[in-house]
From TrEMBL:
This is Serine/threonine-protein kinase RIO2. The keyword Nucleotide-binding applies. The keyword Magnesium applies. One of its GO terms (biological process) is maturation of SSU-rRNA. It comes from the Eukaryota. Its cofactor is Mg(2+). Residues 362-385 have a biased composition (Basic and acidic residues). One of its GO terms (molecular function) is protein serine/threonine kinase activity. InterPro entries: Kinase-like_dom_sf, Rio2, RIO2_wHTH_N, RIO_dom, RIO_kinase, WH-like_DNA-bd_sf, WH_DNA-bd_sf. It is an enzyme of class 2 (transferase). Residues 334-461 are annotated as: Disordered.
Length: 461
């Protein structure tokens, strides 16, 4: 998906206010009724409908009139809310080119005022996994109340918390800068994913370093679960940095040994194939049952001195609590178990190389956002995104592609929005109650959406 950040420059305060109102409504509606959006946003003279039209035009919202007239955020809309928050916080001032397309994320360069370049990862849970989940009806039935925005936010928070904790324990990871909604900002790794490296000066040293990391992670109570050439970055001095942490599990996980072995196997396989390294234990001509094999060379789960829960305190400090760990683990488990026996991202033939090339190149200066003085509003605005709870919606979300191809200029829709706007203006002069009661949709949570706290949050935009 293309992130056309230019649009961000032209979005007004009202636009963000309505976008935020939709986000709030999505806490308990899959599709947020237009009337509710209007009520939350509380723009004067039916202004909400005009803004909705604009947001729809820029694909920040998706319109759905199948059950009642309503909207939901698209990933792009969610991106903009997170980016705006980061800019308001002074984390970065510009978004540049896309540098990576991961399995479940898009990675962009962002720059600070002083020109420092960092990496911004936008999590897209559900982009690929949804298809897998969809095919597992039972799995879905038990968890029909997951909201993809919420899951992506959890994934980002998990990644941020782990990155920070690992950094504190001296692991070679990017510096975790900040996190909001589904967005993580981190330092830019100067190097390339190992998958792009054709030659190494010291493959043995790199190999040992990487295996050492798997062991040290386990000693700290963790297994990466996706430790492969796509998630290991290497610089010109052959220094290793590991990335991509949303799927990490504890060594106390019931399948911990299998995940540990899989991570180790991925590394063996890749170094064998790419750098032609040979490993004694892979000698198929030797019957291992008859010889006293030297197992000490290959790390084994049982021989590692593991300390589960070692990082719990650090993780909680970033706001990633046990409850959140459980929630995301339950979802991700479905995915990594799917991969079990397979290779995760881990082979060079699975199309990721071409995926990496599908980057959208945009000038770094494509967006220069004025940093707003919002120190006081910072906390309130955070709460909007960060207090977002699991919504009790059922998931029938179609792919983002579908909505991209959708004709947003649909004349009927424009007509209906204009009509709604006119009605809202009329209702405003008569009092909103009449209007709401005429609508087929009944807002059960209507009262609470009127409270002053929300208004205060909205005013912070
Ligand atoms: P996913 O979880 O979707 O696999 P990753 O975190 O692995 O996402 O990132 C995908 C790609 O983006 C990586 O393979 C790498 O090329 C690039 N990338 C991610 N983080 C950084 C970073 N901090 N610095 C430089 N490149 C990065
Ligand atoms: Mg990855």
């Amino acid at each position: 998906m293309k992130l056309d950040v230019d649009v961000l420059r032209y979005l007004s305060r009202e636009d963000f206010r309505v976008l935020t109102a939709v986000e709030m409504g999505m806490r308990n509606h899959e599709i947020v009724p237009s009337v509710l959006i209007d009520r939350i946003a509380s723009l004067k003279h039916g202004g909400t409908y005009k803004v909705l039209k604009n947001l729809l035009k820029h694909k920040l919202l998706h319109h759905d009139a199948s059950k009642y007239d309503g909207f939901r955020l698209t990933y792009l809309g969610y991106d903009f809310l997170a980016i705006k928050t980061m800019v308001n916080r002074g984390v970065f001032t510009a978004v540049g080119r896309q540098i990576g397309v991961g399995k479940e994320s898009d990675i962009f360069e962002v720059s600070r005022e002083d020109g420092t370049i960092m990496a911004m990862k936008l999590h897209r849970l559900g982009r690929t996994s949804f298809r897998a989940v969809k095919s597992k009806r039972d799995y879905l039935r038990h968890r029909n109340n997951y909201n993809w925005l919420y899951l992506s936010r959890l994934a980002a928070l998990k990644e941020y918390a782990f990155m920070k904790a690992l950094e504190e324990h001296g692991f070679p990871v990017p510096n975790a800068v900040d996190c909001n909604r589904h967005c993580v900002v981190m330092s830019l790794v100067q190097g390339y994913p190992l998958v792009q490296v054709k030659e190494l000066q010291n493959p043995e040293v790199v190999f040992e370093t990487i295996l050492g990391l798997i062991v040290r992670l386990a000693e700290h109570g963790l297994i990466h679960c996706d430790f492969n050439e796509f998630n290991i970055m290497i610089d010109d001095d052959e220094k290793v940095t590991m990335i991509d942490f949303p799927q990490m599990v504890s060594v106390s996980h019931r399948n911990a040994e299998m995940y540990f072995d899989r991570d180790v196997e991925c590394i063996y396989k890749f170094f064998g194939k790419r750098f032609k390294m040979t490993f004694e234990e892979h000698d198929d001509n030797v019957d291992v049952s008859e010889v006293d094999t030297d197992e000490s060379s290959r790390p084994s789960f049982s021989s590692v001195n593991k300390t589960a829960g070692f990082l719990d305190k650090e993780l909680a400090a970033s706001g990633f609590t046990r409850k959140e760990q459980d929630e995301i683990e339950r979802f991700i488990e479905g995915d990594i178990e799917d991969d079990a026996g397979g290779e995760g991202e881990g082979t060079e033939d699975n199309g990721h190389e071409s995926e990496l090339n599908q980057t959208t190149i945009k000038d770094l200066d494509s967006l220069k956002l004025e940093q707003e003085k919002t120190t006081s509003s910072h906390n309130e605005e955070d709460r909007i995104g960060e207090s977002q709870q699991t919504s009790n919606v059922s998931q029938s979300r179609e792919s983002e592609n579908e909505e991209e191809s959708e004709d947003v200029n649909d004349a009927q829709l424009v007509k209906s929005l204009t009509k709604q706007r006119r009605r809202a203006i009329a209702a405003a002069s008569r009092g909103r109650k009449n209007y709401a009661s005429r609508n087929s949709y009944k807002d059960k949570g209507g009262k609470s959406s009127h409270n002053s706290k929300i208004q205060k949050q909205l005013n912070s935009w």
